[in-house]
Amino acid sequence: MTSAGQIDVALQRRRLMWMLAIDAACVLVAIGAVIGFLGFHIAWMGPLFALAVVGGFAAQIWLVLGLRRAP
Question: Do 25 and 58 contact (CB within 8 A), yes or no?
Answer without folding.
Answer: no
